[in-house]
User: Fold Biotin synthase from Acinetobacter brisouii CIP 110357.
Amino acid sequence: MHVRNDWTREEIQKLYEQPFLDLVFEAQRVHRENFSANTIQVSTLLSIKTGKCPEDCKYCSQSAHYDSKLEAEKRIAVDKVIAEAKEAKESGSSRFCMGAAWRNPHERDMPYVLEMVKEVKALGMETCMTLGMLNQSQAERLRDAGLDYYNHNLDTSREYYSNIISTRTFDDRLNTLDHVRNAGLKVCSGGIVGLGEQKQDRIGLLHELATLPIHPESVPINMLVPIEGTPLEEVEKLEVTEWIRTIAVARIIMPKSYIRLSAGRESLSDTDQAMAFMAGANSLFSGDKLLTTPNAGEGRDKVLFSKLGLVAEKPKLTAAELSVDAMAESA
Ligand code: SAM
Ligand code: DTB
Ligand code: SF4
Assistant:
């Protein structure tokens, strides 16, 4: 299938606004052309530095600008991270995603994150980090340490961005994505719905993602988890069908990308999630916790996978990585 980076906003709007069942049907057709129908990629998240973030993202429990009652935590020890990664691997996760509440990593943080990447990678897992803005040299050093993916979301449309975050710009986000891409890392970038945005903003976000020079390999579609104490605490809940429409359009316009069910799953029924898989979602975060908020736990996901006949994807490792993995397992 031909992958397009020249989608117009009008084309995306037309896809988004078609009757729901036509949209989901088309998304499932595109999905089956590009992926195996019943396989889901599973990642696990861990917060390696929690809270007191200098950024003012209005949705976030970790921003120092709001009183969200979150208990802040300093950088956690690398040993602890490795123990969590091993546990995630044993429970069937193929990728380990480490997040820090920073505007950007300071140079003094680099040895810490680089060591962590090396050690998680040595377990035979795919590695992902989300640490805020990166400069070119930081992206390259992360790549050299064995980082596979970098998560950095565009979050919402360019027009709505300043209503949600004022401490950085949409172009700051695009610059970091450029550095990550130039370093040869895989990109994980998506957004949040349910911020009080309009349909036009969801369409605008999809348009930005699908017209990047190379589509992100992974596209998380988060649904707002309202956090007490943040400005978006009382925002009106978005219709689940709008979240599913966003997923379905993402699947159609970025046919080779993994579309990830991210935050917000805990509050959704199994049938809502089944509909999201039907709309082409094929990855998710497992475990009881996301970064700071509860997630549909492992037990609930096992039941969901078994009910729907879904299987977790095995990590995609090179032959050399697989032999390291086998050695680690026999040790
Ligand atoms: N600090 C880094 C950054 O912002 O790039 C990485 C961590 S941040 C928590 C990662 C993403 O999680 C955000 O871009 C946003 O899409 C999502 N997120 C954060 N808080 C959320 C919430 N309350 N509900 C839904 N998604 C949320
Ligand atoms: C993404 O798009 N969603 C994940 C991951 N990337 C880092 C984070 C969701 C965070 C939800 C709110 C919380 O747990 O603090
Ligand atoms: Fe900080 Fe990321 Fe939360 Fe924004 S989303 S406040 S950058 S941790």
User: Anything to note?
Assistant: The chain has one domain: 9-329. The two ends are 43 Å apart (CA to CA). The longest strand covers residues 39-49. Residues 9-329 form a domain with the TIM Barrel fold (CATH 3.20.20.70).
